[in-house]
Amino acid sequence: MLKHKLTNKLQIYALFLLLSSLVVYIALVIGGVVLAIVALFSVLVFYFFNPYIASHFILRMYSAQVIPYSSAPALYDMADELSARAGLSFTPKLYYIPSSVINSFTVGQSENSSIAISDGILRRLNYEEIAGIIGHEISHIKNDDIRVMIFADVAGRLIKIFSIMGQVLILLSLPFIFMGNVQINWLPFIFVIVAPLGSDLIQLAMSRVREYEADRGSAMLLGDARPLISALHKISFYEHNIFRSIITPVNKIPEPSLLRTHPQTEQRISRLIEIDKTIEHKPYQFHPDFLSGSQSHHHIETKHRHPRRHINGFWY
Predict the structure, then answer these.
(1) How far apart are alpha carbons 184 and 125 in whole angstroms?
(2) How many domains does the chain have?
(3) Domain that includes residue 31, residue range
(4) For residue 34, how far is the Cα from the chain centroid?
(5) How far apart are CA 227 and CA 193, in angstroms?
(6) Cα–Cα dist 15/155, whole Å
(7) What pLDDT digit, counting tens, does each position of 125-181 carry?
């Protein structure tokens, strides 16, 4: 367990150092020492404060609403139990997203953490499967994944911006280069051009690692991998229902943009099946009053609406 925790921390620090180095080096190439110092200061500030900055913005963008305890006591009791099992000294707030997209995500840091659950999840998954999803999100909180992945996204965007600036500088310098008035060391600029691809690959790889770890954490917290396996089967069915796609291609539910870097669902299920064979099964005792997804939110004031795209590209 200690070895696993140490590996997890090393992966986080390696990602931070690698992406920070990319940002600072590209800034140095295109803007010199001053821009490099500004870039370094920016990534440090954002790494330590990004969970607090992004939380309100993301929840507001998704029109998320706090789920009162009185509306879903069993959901909160479950979140309390799973948080305690994860060793957290707090329980994340639960938010409701009025969207038919089957989606959940976590924002915030420590006591300010929140888990947002879509109407699609509450309507289509039963209580055990919802527990698997919440266990997955609590594992993200426990592993400090939110800070890391938001930072990785912002660092990737900075790298793309600096890369574009570098390419513009090269284009503006071409006449002087051809006239022989300017000498350029092309190797750093070639690196600047290809850097966005490298940062994307790093983010993809790390995101998949973090998702696999959160899946594993859910299985451990519940003492059973089957609830999350069942949830993933259902999510896959609703996302890839061929018959429904043919009948209503215009209304097909798009893949949430927050999930675009996730591993293939089949791969996640395959790993969970292997994990389920190795864990000592001590299943969480589910609330007897909640037997289906339709019952698990019957006190929540739902505001169902169809998926749509935000101006920044997010599906919700």
Answers:
(1) 59
(2) 1
(3) 2-296
(4) 33
(5) 44
(6) 11
(7) 988 899 999 999 999 999 888 878 878 878 888 888 888 888 888 888 777 767 776
